[in-house]
Amino acid sequence: MLAYSEGAIGCNQDYSIAFMGDIVRFDPSFALRRDSFVQLSLSPEQKLTSAMRMLAYGSPADQLDEYVRMGESTLMEVFRKFCNNIINMYGATYLRAPTPADLRILLRKASSSGFPGMIGSIDCMHWEWRNCPSGWAGQYTGHMHRPTIILEAVASYNTWIWHAFFGTPGLNNDINVLGMSPVFDRIVNGSAPHVRFEVNGHAYDQCYYLADGIYPSWSTLVKTFSNPRSNKEALFAQHQEAHRKDVERAFGILQTRWAIVRGPARAWDVVTLNNIMVTCIILHNMIIEDEQVDSDDEMDDDLDYEVHAQPEPINRHQSTLIDYLARNNRLCSSTTHHALRNDLVEHLWNLHGNI
């Protein structure tokens, strides 16, 4: 894909040229120009190479100044601009919420895996903050005993990251992060696409994520059994934990491709760290799109689910507090959570119980 990160990601030359052209057109400061002394400025290849090496290898600016023949302060300025440009140019496309077309693909794949209605898995990752200000160290230091910042992400079967919420202090746990996260805002606000599917003969109208045991028992989260008491529950736990690892794989791939988020963060402010993390996630999704082999057309489409386009925007003057609370209560329903999990237990047992 992008030639500037060499071994970290692929090297599709045409894609690299288009990528560089997009950035130069969006931000003319990356273009090759002449200064007031009629001397050529730094080339876009130099600027992109420096930024990509800082992301892919975690190289500090003073390590690259001789390699790309740029001053340290110029390197940092180019790096910040690069991250901002990637977010502004590609964020709406590569950090979008699933569209009805995306949902159909995710639902087909989940149904073939034994989890009808599942559209991904959710979890959190900690990024150590080496240069955390001393006055903030208490709220950013949690179970890792070092200042960290938390990334909450939702990833699907191909490790595409559909949701990223970054910036929560490391003292919080996954439940606290979920309470601050906008991951379910579209459901509560009534603007999410309408989805209907059946499991074990029962109809449901909300998709769900696979989650680990710390998460609450909500209708949109399906957890495993910590202590399975039957063969059916043991089989469900085995499959749920296997598919829940999609988000763990996404974290591992993200940190492998972009060494800057694998090691301790060296920036001094949360805004810069947020831009770095979001940039890495966008580039991660771009690589997946570039390298993915589409086989979705070959999948069986004769499945019990319905996806309807996103409804018209809600008129805030007509939408009442009662409607909002009703949607929130449906989202947080533990009764629906347990009913759905029990239906999934029976569904998986019917599929794999005799194997």
UniProtKB/TrEMBL annotation:
InterPro entries on file: Harbinger_derived_prot (IPR006912)
Top-level taxon of the source organism: Eukaryota
Stored Pfam families: Plant_tran
Protein name: Nuclease HARBI1
Native source species: Linum trigynum
Lineage: Eukaryota, Viridiplantae, Streptophyta, Embryophyta, Tracheophyta
